[in-house]
Inverse folding.
């Protein structure tokens, strides 16, 4: 996700359109990107930590983006 201090024109445009489309309960929108990583074997804390590290150091631009969630697709708990 873009860091809070980074301008997000797409999120601002979506936030302006939502009330016109009947979604007045939302006051802010931030637009980001998502990566899906696949691997073989069970989901462990080590795998999730490796995914977070890849996100922070390889898949994102740490100057302007934050990694906000790393989780297993079938898990209900989000690991921050």
């Amino acid at each position: 996700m873009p860091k809070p201090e980074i301008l997000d024109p797409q999120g601002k445009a979506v936030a302006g359109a939502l009330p016109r489309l009947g979604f007045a309960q939302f006051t802010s929108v931030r637009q980001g990107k998502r990566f899906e990583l696949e691997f073989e074997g069970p989901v462990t804390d080590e795998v999730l930590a490796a995914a977070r590290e890849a996100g922070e150091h390889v898949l994102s631009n740490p100057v302007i983006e934050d990694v906000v969630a790393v989780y297993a697709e079938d898990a209900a708990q989000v690991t921050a």
